[in-house]
Amino acid sequence: MASMDMAGLYRVGVFYGNADYILSLGREPLIYGLNIQGAPPNKAHPTIVSRRLTLEYTSAICRQAFPPGTHIAVPEWPNVTVVNALGDYGLAADRLAYIDGDEDPWLPATPHSPHAPERDDTLVRPFKLIRTGVHHHDENGVEPRSMEPAHIQAIHRQEIEFVGAWLKGTTD
Fold it and tell me: How deeply is 29 buried, as exposed, middle or buried, from its count of CB atoms within 10 A (0-12, 13-18, 19+)?
């Protein structure tokens, strides 16, 4: 696998605006924890995930973008306790929206997983599943927005509606 200089990419702005996300990948692995699993540990077990996908490889972006300093340090191992304490499929809170695509490869790790208990979609706790949607389908769209598929435009209208209600305090 080619070496990565993710810090260099970070510095030149490829990841500009995502510093908090990158730091969270190395410290509190909401997603990172899934990535570090890599291939099954038993070498005789077949895998579709490269055995080169290791903790060292997947944490490179964190370590390179945030070298040890006075105020910030990326731990040797991410703090999974912080994430696990939040709950699992049942994690819910007012003004916390779940918007997933039904074709998102991360779907089994979300509250929309087929293994998760069903829940209601409400104004205060939106729970939207985009049919034929992929990862970040509602946010990484087409410009101009008028060229997006109708079902993505509908999700955008719903997002504007529930966030507007939250800001106005009209969700009670």
Answer: buried
Contact 156, 145 (CB under 8 A): yes
Report yes or no: 59 and 26 within 8 Å, Cβ to Cβ.
yes
Domain positions in the chain:
6-84, 98-168
Quote the tokens at residue 66. 């945030």
Q: Give the separation between CA 159 and CA 102, rounded to whole angstroms.
A: 18
Q: Are 151 and 130 a contacting pair, CB within 8 Å?
A: yes
Look up the pTM and report it. Answer: 0.67
70-125 pLDDT, tens digit per residue, is: 887 788 777 777 777 877 888 899 999 999 999 998 898 889 999 999 999 999 99
**Residue 34 to residue 10: CA distance in whole angstroms:** 22
Nearest to 97 by CA among 116, 115, 124, 135: 124
